[in-house]
Amino acid sequence: MTYISAPLPNLSLLWGRDARENTPLHERFSAVFEKIRKQALQAELNRELPFEQIRLLKESGFTALRVPVAHGGLGASLEDLFSLITALAKADSNVAQALRAHFGFVEHLLFEPDGPYRTKWLDRLGAGQTAGAAAAEGPASKRDLFSTTLSQRDGHWVINGSKFFTTGSLYADWLTVTGTTEDGQTVKTLAARNDPGLEIVDDWDGVGQRLTASGTAHFRDVHTEDADLRYGNTAFPYSQAFFQLYHLATVAGIARSAATDVADAVRRRKRTFSHGNADLPAEDPQILEVVGHVFSGAYIAGAAVERAARAIQAVADSPASEIELAVARAELEVWQVQDRILPLVLEATTALFDALSGGATLRVVGLDRHWRNVRTLGNHNPRVYRTRVVGDYAVNGTLPPAQWRVGVA
Questions:
Q1: Which has the closest alpha carbon to 177: 133, 127, 123, 130?
Q2: Cα separation, 373 vs 311, whole angstroms
Q3: CB 87 within 8 A of CB 302
Q4: Residue 154 has pLDDT above 70, yes or no
Q5: Is 372 a member of any domain?
Q6: Where's the Acyl-CoA dehydrogenase/oxidase N-terminal domain (predicted)?
Q7: Whether 246 and 211 share a structural domain
Q8: Are 366 and 349 members of one domain?
């Protein structure tokens, strides 16, 4: 594609008014996000794993966003978190998703009773350490039983087995591991990333989110502390809504990135067609309509995530006597957002190609990554089941079901 130079408009006016984008928190991380954005396309094309980007976020205090100030963190709200995840995902959605399990672990700790376990881990995360995921197992795993085992050997606990979808673990200091004890109990614990028995294989082969290291982890007598074991369902009350809205905030960021890319491409493009409507694509009303359509999708995605984040914040702020209803309300809101955002952004990240030419499909341009990344995120927690839950509540008043599991029945 051949381009011309033109000044860049203030595209933030098109995202709508989010008061959090003018806060000191956004200002604090804007330079880090911009540095990550500038590396994103080349990282994608050359398969450069984002170790450096994660290091920058640790050093800036971003990974300690929700950690209380007393433990070295920033004490940010959930609404601030989701707003900043959208901004980070606009820069590079791989980096944003790589921290999903980490921020979920922080929420788990915030709902833990005061004690040595909570203090130890909040202090570590406040100092910049991070956690990655190691819960989901491979296609043959059972739905109601983890094949990864925790057992006692020579007076201490060890982990054995393999995990899949270990998102972010390659870049983390710790892995949050879910397994089964010898007597059949579900247990969650933590393992050190540098344990000699822990092998993380970067074999994630998805069409999108290719740099999240969402592949396999093998545990061979990996040590864990007895004091770190948590038995049964230890999920924090709004965990389902939180983890799904995290994906949707990432999708909203991808939508903004795609919209920015297509506007930039049209603005700088010089070539046009004889049967077009102007001598420059930037002056062609049909092309401008396509760009406007992509931006509209990005606006709606961001606005919906912002609204749903308020519902999750309300759960965290609720007294114990009201938390069950607040959780149901938050889940129903998030499931509705999920139902509409995914097809909307998938359509927008396809339509953007209509504003350009065949050169837009070149791999070096990287525009295809937006659709691939959204499609990948949308498959992690199938929206069809969540949409049914919304309909069931609307017709029958049935509250959303409890924690779900995946595997062979």
A1: 133
A2: 26
A3: no
A4: yes
A5: yes
A6: 34-125
A7: no
A8: yes
